């Protein structure tokens, strides 16, 4: 009999968390790999060796020698320093135990540019009209920023530009890297072919501080002789409408680009090609306008085929004008991470006429993306597509997000090609499920339209199937909300603000790292957060990148203007790196963010000393009170336990009043609570990095703040003000109550949950901890009840209402189908998936990167089976279990490098040799 067990192999060789990256930023990057040993048992890595060859020089530049270690995550090469602009190949040799054959694999990586000699190139163009409110309260709009009433879009927006640069190469290069950045979003082509499939390059970062440069291997696209580089430039986040206010031109009103091509000749010599600006010709293309909020209009009659191929002669040569060089003093940094791409396609499910006669298309899924259509019709016919996430209770098209310039409409003017034409916008995206179509020539069929899903192209790393299909749908809905919002930056929603809210991200960080490999993506975003923080007084913004219109005296005279460094939002600076470390086990994330965390905690400490709650009269404080308040970061305004149900009563009639209740009622509690939480995290980070004294000092200070918190905000009977579920949850989660009163807090929380009809009353900041707090304090059943609750507000209410994503508010859709003007695609409340994976499916990391894992299936809960897997840094960890009365079968797949401990609920036992090493393990559990 032949053995069909696949032999062990090396898999997913990464450098700084990416496979074969073109431009790593660090000169001392981290290496990682996985050993796959499907079918094996107890396979382990005994040692590894890494050799690095400089591909430009053709020389081996590093050899670790054989290192006796099972480490395969976050491996640093002592003494290796990558050359900026260099290219390398690394060979990994791994020795296994059990006398198994050694493994070898190679992979490549490139390093970011060294210096920048390229000019900034500016095509001739009309600047885009700067417009939009300056203030969240329209009645307070005071300055001259234009409003839009009645002004046609063609007068407010401008056409994207096409840049064409023809250049000659004496010989085809051995290797070539295009490095390109732009003010505006770009798509680049060489000799008529797109250089990559990235969308919305160079991504969205704090452009005013530093511009990201995208590196692409273009070796295969260059030829000896004439070559043409084509760059299409559109407004994107640079000049288009973005964020809360929806103002345009926040970074600039003119589009520009800068690029260089780094060439390696056959003989090993190198050269950097930079364009002479006047040799670059530019014209407007067939797109009349394009804006992320508003949409895009293409007039296909204006198409010039082959505009970036060699030998192109324009029909109107005057339309192509030379560009100018503009001096620009702006920092550059390499774009590192996965680009935005088309990630999925969703076919149209249904085309029909709504009761009011509108022609509608349903894609069956709320998503971020745009429609690709195929149409046959007369030249000049115009099609218009409007996008929305919801229908009203009568089944008519309903715009669930409104506000400044959120039109979400695309327009297409047909060229009238025989045999039909296909179109998808290039530089815009929408958040939608439904499309209202006007102007369609002939009969529209579902097969004429496809929704093209776009987002940062991150690998999905988890799956879950249980005996409750509603939980499975909740899992999928959360994945869809992540897919829709991990788009260049982690955004709140893909249809309204599309802004990098720090709070939303920190709430969702654990779930995000469970559902996708977000390491490189959040690494980049955190780098931007640090740049932004360094540019302030140590505080961290509610949004990263912080839109310029929301800096300075934004919101003066309104509550929004006072919320500058919101608790639980700004704390993303400590929470997100710590979460990433837990999930991925690479200490680099802690080293990179240590200073930013220290600066943030120092900021909280400073504000604590300087600002007391406005309700206190300074003179009236006793010395003890004064000392307490000097420790507590409790004097400023925050978003608080945002959107907690009982703060939102009356939202339909007075939305402004309702939404501001969470800040008004809960700021004073949540801020010092998150202050302690950030101190605790920082103490852990210091400890982890070997800074024991700093850790100790922080723990002592945190103990003092805790004591002050308890004295100020927790009554002797355990009561808190405001008497809301979320306050107890946060106090318990962050361990803010003295041990003696803890049980009273738990009791009060349980009473409040019962009083709410066994329903949650938690907002953004408390919901991530709700179920754990109940579970860890002896109320497992109530945690399960809340999870399976289907009355509003609850997770499964949304699912039973037909949600296909996670809603912004628990009340976004009412039982009668009425839809609030709220986003239906906000991931924050999807943070419960982390809990489900840990406590129901039963996969919980007990050391960073899932090096050790606790498998604790909920055999006492409502599920009779569950099958989950997670692609950890070591490989796939799968836990499948099914329960039948007093027996249960549990299957665990453990990857090489991980170790699993099975922890069954009290009363259950399963004979096994603990802990479990690599391999597939079947356990029969019984209730004893
Ligand atoms: C966003 C949120 C965000 C919040 C801050 C909202 O408009 O959509 O998700 O965190 O503002 O309060």
From TrEMBL:
Keywords, ordered alphabetically: Hydrolase
Name of the molecule in the record: alpha-L-rhamnosidase
Catalytic activity: Hydrolysis of terminal non-reducing alpha-L-rhamnose residues in alpha-L-rhamnosides
UniProt domain Alpha-L-rhamnosidase six-hairpin glycosidase: residue ranges: 461-838
GO molecular function, one term: hydrolase activity
Limits of the Bacterial alpha-L-rhamnosidase N-terminal domain: 173-343
Domain Alpha-L-rhamnosidase concanavalin-like: 355-454
Chain segments annotated as transmembrane: none
Pfam families: Bac_rhamnosid (PF05592), Bac_rhamnosid6H (PF17389), Bac_rhamnosid_C (PF17390), Bac_rhamnosid_N (PF08531), Ig_Rha78A_N (PF25788)
InterPro entries reported in the protein's UniProt record: 6-hairpin_glycosidase_sf, 6hp_glycosidase-like_sf, Alpha_rhamnosid, Bac_rhamnosid6H, Bac_rhamnosid_C, Bac_rhamnosid_N, Ig-like_fold, Rhamnosid_concanavalin
E.C. designation(s): 3.2.1.40
Top-level EC class: hydrolase
Ranges where the Alpha-L-rhamnosidase C-terminal domain occurs: 842-907
